[in-house]
Here is the input.
Amino acid sequence: MKIGLFIPCYIDAFYPKTGIATLELLEKLGQNAEYPMDQTCCGQPMANSGCSPDAKMTEELFVRNFAKYDVIVAPSGSCVHHVRDHFDAMEQTADVRHVRQNTYELVEFLHDVLKVRDFPWAEFPHRVGLHNSCATLRSLRTASMSELGEPFFSKPKTLLSAVKGISFATPKRPDECCGFGGTYSVTEEAVSAKMGLDKVTDHHEAGAEYIVSADTSCMMHQQGCAERNGVPIRFIHIAEILNGAKA
Amino acid sequence: MSNKPIPHAKSAAEWIEKEDHYTFHDERLWDMRQKRDEQMHLLPEWQDLREQASRLKEHTLAHLPHYLEQFEENARRNGIHVHWARDGAEHNRIVESLLKKHNKTSIIKSKSMITDECEMREYLEPRGYSVTETDLGERIQQLDGQMPSHVVVPAVQKLTGDVAQLFAKYYDTDPASDDPHELAEAQRIAARPALLTGDTGMTGGNFLVAETGTFVVCTNEGNADLSANLPDLHIATLGIERLIPRMADLGVFIRLLSRSALGSPITQYTTHFRKPKKGGEMHVILVDNGRSDRLAMDDFWSSLKCIRCGACMNTCPVYRRSGGQSYGAVYSGPIGAIIDPTFNAKKFSTLPFASTMNGSCTNVCPVKINIHDQLYKWRQVLAERHEIPFVKRALMKMAGRLLAQPALYRLSISGAEVALKTVPRFALYNYFNQWGKHRELPHPVKETFHSWYKKNRLNKEKGAEKEETEA
Ligand code: SF4
Here is the structure.
């Protein structure tokens, strides 16, 4: 199985550590992963602004970059949601369909495809609050949703539970959106930032030292809100913990 | 009606500054959502009920003309007068003509969103008719000259202190006394004369039952029953989408409605209206006002399934944090954001963007409207119709071009140091200006993943290949 690694633009630019951890983790698991150098973005910012036609060329580039891989893996739920569910501005060729059907968010790839349950190298002796982005929760469905009353499950938690020393804090509103919302974070910056502050406060008050998530974009926003308001909490991507980061 | 786009972001930003209102509003509505969850957990068949409700509504909408005719026929047989109103203006004229014909001047009215939608008060009052709201929340909003903030709890954005101030102005009560019971009592005392002297009762309605030609009104205060039964003339206004085929279908909706809305098993009053009282008259006005146009919209017709429970508002993290008034519309929150643009795409063009598209609304909706998908669709439609700000359009066009050309993209983010400068300057300026108002920017890093990969994987591989060939 040849894996194409998609590293979204903001991870490339602001959180390269997350990209590196994702790659190293896949390699540790014996996978053959490659990062096509001509990648840029999945097109989501334009499409979410209503400008699908402007997203089209970027989306076509994505398909050109990744059609040759058996699977495409990205450490970002919202990008995967976009590729899978919203890549419809362009003609639905065989390549496009292949890419849409075979793009995975890292957690679901580890959990459902590779079915990894052990990370013997991983140890994280901290209390963490798990943040499921709305894309992973309600679109990719990597965890049960409180609104539906379905039996509890959480793929990220299942993976993290294999990490030595880790413990979990329980926030009051675990499924509440953190307010990032892509371009929403700037079109309605005040509400967005307030939601972010409420979110990090909820985790902090529940005793979390770290917020851990499969979505860096949410955390970039939350971190900004925590720092501006002096909420003492740190942030780490799930790939880094699973790859063995200690702090 | 002004066409200027509603400044949702700005109004919401102002609302957030009112700390006590903000906290109360968010927590009150979240509490309703929690209670809704508790009720859901008590009914193992919850998801089946939602599915049934959704199918029943879809079926009815697909056969709307048939069921409307059936309703009309059966209602007439019961002795109800049935009227059809193409839009709000026609509705208001029908009401006026009924009042004239019967020589009536004062309406006592229970809560109905649709008369607000038709702007009926605004039409009737200058013409010398009085309209008194008998629902406490709606009355509060009426006195304050505001639209309802929420479809179920119209004055939820007000603290008891606000209500005390407001009542003091009109009812001569103590502005400092904010005890909810006293306030409710003040309203009761003030409204009683209007209730007793009002010569026309108006109600909305939750369901029209085609099979029986009856309609059903669900309330908690019982005021609809007073409004409907005290005067001789009862006028009920309902949207044409309120239909259900059979009485046997009603149970599905009744079980879902109040559980979704307030987290209570049922409303205090579920009143069935079948025929006028002795010597009285009963009129039903069926209002279209854009509904049949909406039914023809591929992506948006299913919003007509809505039973106005407000659950999507209660769960919406943006609505809870921005207050209903910020939507500038009769219908606020997620459901408002997808139906308001059908009334006026320019004026309400900002509302589909007043969402993070988190999808919680879709999950709680008892009739399974795909609200967040429709928000996404509306964004596409509005951008296509150029109903989004020019700067944003231009920015997205540029971003789209740049991101489609890897070499140009890399060039635009190369040079100098990475981090903040990695984002092209034009985007950065607009973007981070807004971003940074209430948030810190991400921290600079030394190199991008792209360049790390080049050094640590590509060049290494090449290096390794070289070694191999040399060996
Ligand atoms: S859209 Fe659904 S959740 Fe929202 S008010 Fe209508 S029925 Fe209730």
Observations:
- Residues B 151, 306-312, 335, 364-367, 369, 371 surround iron/sulfur cluster (CB under 6 Å).
- Chain A touches chain B through 76 residues (CB under 8 Å).
